[in-house]
Amino acid sequence: MATIGAPFGVRGCFRLKTRTEHPENALSYGPLTDASGKFYQFKLVRIEDVHTLVVSEANTPDRTAAEGLRGIKLFTDQQALPEINTDTDDDALYCGDLIGLEARDADGNIVGTVENVENYGASDILIIKTAEGLKQIAFILDSVLDINIEKEYLVIVKDHLI
Question: Which of 25, 88, 90, 154 is a Cys-bridge partner for 20, taking CB atoms 3.0 to 4.6 Å apart?
Fold first, then answer.
């Protein structure tokens, strides 16, 4: 859902890099938690850009405390997210829907399993666990040819794995 970024000012505010269509939506789907299950309550200070909010958090009193949170990934329960309207967008899905899918090549051979979805700014990256270890592939049409959520697999161009 979001990642805590750099501190903003000296009063404990910090940037929140969101992965939502509109950045402020990240605060509207219920409580956000880190990987350990710790809850965070944010107050919006301002919208900085199309993917970044400046927020405050009740238990973060100063810049030093904010710096200690930098890099924490935040999650919400997928049931709290809005239902995807497949009538208007049949290609829409949540990144979490991809985790656990079998990755196959164009011939149907199993390449591995989707372990995670990352984003480093340019596009989403699928992290695939293969027999050789973790590999990455850009989540773009040239590299991911088909996705079948119901049958729990996706088809990739194996040569695009790095």
Answer: 25
